[in-house]
Amino acid sequence: MSRRHSLAEELRRANSTVVSGDDFAELALLHAAREEGRSHSRYGSVASENDGSCGDGELLLEAPNDNKKKDRRLSLIGETELLKDELKSTITLAIPIISTYLLELIPGIVTIILVGRADHGSASLTQLYLDAAALANMWVNITALSTGFGILSAMDTLCASAVGAKQYSKMGTFLLTGLCIISAVFGVVSMVVWKTDSALLFLRQPVLPATHAGTFARWMLPGIPFLYAYEIVRKMTQARGQTKPMVAAAIVSNIVNAGAGYYLVNFTEMKWLGAAAARTLGSISLLPTMLIVLYYSEEAEACDISTKEWAKHVLSGMKASSALTWKAIHKFLSLGIPGMAMLMFEWVAFEVVALLCGIIPGDHEAIVAIGSNAIVFNISSLLYMVYLGTSISGNVRLGTALGSGDVERATIASYITIGLGMSLSLFNMAVILSFRQDLCTLFTSDMELIEKSKSLLLVVALYQFPDAVNAVEQGVYQASGRQALGAKLNFIAYYIIGLPLAYLLAIPFGAGVGGLWFGMTIGLCFIASINTFVILRSDWRTLSMDARKRLSISLPRES
Fold first, then answer.
1. Would you give the distance in Å from CA 18 to the centre of its chain?
2. What pLDDT, in 10s, does the model give residues 409-427?
């Protein structure tokens, strides 16, 4: 059989069968061979006299409609395979990240438990120390953690793009730039945390709790730079798809925090301040544990080189001549400052909600509102870790695709991230509605608080959907370098719509704490709708060019 007859037969067989992903390369070669070996005609081609086919110039007819169907089928199969691969990768990465964030919630809870269950000699002292510990935690979260973690969100954008583009030495540049910037941030943050008592008194908090909170916060201060350093390294490893080190670090940190806290609170003269010292020790343990596990770990889903080779590339990129220039610092801050604003707008908004609970008319109603709000806020925060982990996973997958110039994968990654967020919110809504009673009894045995919290959880269940969508879409914004847009929309959602509406519903209209949560839900529904519209209309090729421009490399041209 002649070569042309053989090729035609192969193409006819391809048209009549379902093609798997492994056949794509072969079919592409066949198609290229066919195009090269014929003279173009609208309906067919005449074989050359000397191309090895029959010498009488036989006509090889094509079936344009069949070829179009085949092309559509191949395109559909390719998109389906890509969708499956991206969905699997996103979920595989999300599970350990979610686990890590859940583990990182535990130290704050353990701190409160250690203070609350210690023998202070009287109920009044126990309440005083509990209030002081809660105030100190709140102040450190708002001033130190939201600031530092927000600035370092620039690493999410930059590292994922660098991994996608296989520019691993760039991660060393970003590491050195980030360390220098966060050191300067800590210099400011440390002064603010050191003056916690003065700041709380300025905000008209009760004198004794504010004064004791200042002491508690100062014991927590030495652990903050270690948290920052751990956060930087974690963002680098998770960009590679390497999650074992951060899970191990979170587990060890919890063991250190709980063990040291129990000993210091109950068997030393530190008493309740031992809980703060233990929190610092737990924070200090994070980085060395992570580095040790990282040294012995070779697993890295998104990276094609070993950990040791990757580390060499990172170290080679840590040059002051490139990392400490105005251009490098400006690039980092242009992403980090809006990222900080995104985080702070959200965290501060819910502290304002807690404060508004205290001015609900009626002393008893205000006390019940404060207690029930604390219960449902903790439940919602626990569920939020699921959305946050999914957001980070989507951030990594999308950022990697943008950095590699894979526009199609980037588009699919953004859709998968949003779809997972929506699905998880519906699951969590079902959990809340099914186990309202059980969830509330985990926090208190007071029947009035339980009943109030149960009714409040109905609103919190509705809140899950926009909260999840907003969380994962912030991850999409971070991956594509659009933190500034996310910060602006967060400000509008929380401070232009959410909080004013929450106040109106809760106080003038008498809806109480339920009105506060309903107002915040409306605000988040607004931002979720706008974010979804923006993301669905995104030009991913342009965003990929922007990502690669941040790495100073060009996007391959379309063929």
1. 38
2. 999 999 999 999 999 999 9
Q: Which runs of consecutive H residues, i.e. helices, occur in 405-511?
A: 407-434, 436-441, 447-479, 483-491, 499-506
What is the residue type of 332?
Answer: F
- CA angle, 82 as apex, 78 and 84 as ends, to 5°? 120
Nearest CA-CA partner of 219 in 278, 143, 132, 282: 278
List b or e across 36-70, with b for residues whose CB sees 16 or more CB atoms inside 10 angstroms: ebbeeeeeebebeeeeebeeeeeebebeeeeeeeb
Instruction: Fill in the amino acid letter for 471.
Output: A
Q: State whether 453 and 424 are in the same domain.
A: yes
In this structure, what token pair is assigned to residue 133?
A: 């510990």
Same domain as 396, residue 455: yes
Residue 111 neighbours by CB under 8 Å, 6+ apart: 133, 137, 257, 261, 275, 276, 278, 279
Residue 213 belongs to some domain of the structure: yes
The residue whose two tokens read 């203070």 is 115
- DSSP string covering 245-308: HHHHHHHHHHHHHHHHHHHHHHHSTTTTHHHHHHHHHHHHHHHHHHHHHHHT----TT-SS-HH
What is the domain extent for residue 371?
Answer: 336-549
* 3-state SS class at 324: coil
Query: Is 79 domain-assigned?
Result: no
Report the domain count for the chain. 3
pLDDT category of residue 367 using cuts at 50, 70 and 90? confident
Quote the longest CA-to-CA distance of the chain. 109
Residue 482 main-chain phi, psi, to 5 deg = -110, 40
Task: Give every CB contact of residue 324 below 8 A, 6+ residues apart in sequence.
Answer: 176, 177, 180
Predicted pLDDT at 283: 96
pLDDT one-digit tens code per residue, 273-286: 999 999 999 999 99
Please tell me whether residues 317 and 347 are part of one structural domain. Answer: no
Distance linking the first and last C-alpha atoms of the chain: 34
